[in-house]
Amino acid sequence: VVAWIDQGAPRGNPADMPAMPHFEESEWKLGQPDLVVKLPETEIPAEGSDVFAKLPGTVALPEDRWIKAVEIKPGAPKVVHHVIMFQIKGFDVDPSGGWIGAWAAGTEPMVFPEGTGRLMQKGANLIGDMHWHPSGVATKDQTSVGLHFAKTEDVQKELVNLWVANDDWTIPAGDPNYEVRSKYTFPQDAFILGFAPHMHYRGKDFTYTARYPDGRGEQLLRVDNYDFNWQTNYVLSKRLPMPKGTTIECVAHFDNSANNPVNPDPTRNVTFGEETNDEMMIGFLDYVVADGVRPKSQEELRLDILNEWAKELS
Questions:
Q1: What does the alpha-carbon distance between residue 75 and residue 70 come to, in Å, rounded to a whole number?
Q2: What's the gap between Cα 60 and its chain centre?
Q3: In this predicted model, what pLDDT tens digit does every residue of 2-32 receive, in sequence order?
């Protein structure tokens, strides 16, 4: 290579050139979806505060369908901060399984592990929790959502998205290493399939640790150099068992000092907020339950506790 450079990098024989690559007409990374849902077009001003909206998308399937992959395609990615897609019935997010998928800078389409899926319920529609950040140029955005459906017999487990979050803190101005913690305890046996830490410009590092019922601790994921522009989904090659009673502890550090080159304002105390110049601390993770298809309801979990007490008393 050095010799070729020293020769002036001459071009090779055109006859030896490989054929031009052929790309499918579809602009979708996963190929043409089974269903494309377009959200309403929105105008984003050149300047000013971040813009937020909840935009509807029509699905209204005649029957329940399992989703095996979701690709969210912003129309103007330079101004789209993030998109979170929920399913809704009527006007409310369905609390039994509303989360469908998300997009943020650097993320790839969400392809769910084999044998898992998210359930799109009969008659439900989508709503996009949208966040735009003005770029200095007036822009129009129309985000599209591509849904890929699985056969019912191919899905054995619902893929559940969990938010291990903390929103009660203030990062002091100039602090180079402020720590925030959050935790969640599994109420039933489960398996973790992946992680996705989320912070904003001051995000420095993020760690997930499991505290097992027997007292053991295990570091599951550590992101040492968090980059807001590359928010990565970390998908495990093997399912990680989480016995009932295991606690997931998340620890994040933030650099709010002038030494952080992307810090919007090191002189400002920063709190949890939706705007890009605010901060967030969310340890997303995907999991499936060990028994059954979907997690137990609160009523079922309370009944399990009562049954355990009854056994102990007898």
A1: 16
A2: 24
A3: 999 999 998 888 788 788 766 555 589 999 9
3-state helix, strand, coil in the chain (%, to 5): 10, 45, 45
Structure tokens at 162: 């969990």
Q: Nearest-CA neighbor of 158 among 245, 230, 98?
A: 98
Q: Which tokens sit at 146?
A: 């591509």
Pairing of strands 116-120, 157-158: parallel
Per-residue pLDDT tens digits for 37-74:
999 999 999 999 889 898 999 998 999 999 999 999 99
Closest listed residue to residue 27, CA positions, set 117, 138, 131, 109: 109
Q: How far apart are CA 244 and CA 197, in angstroms?
A: 23
Dihedral angle of Cα 202, 204, 206, 207, to the nearest 10 degrees: -150
CA terminus-to-terminus distance, the chain: 79
More confident residue, 313 or 62: 62
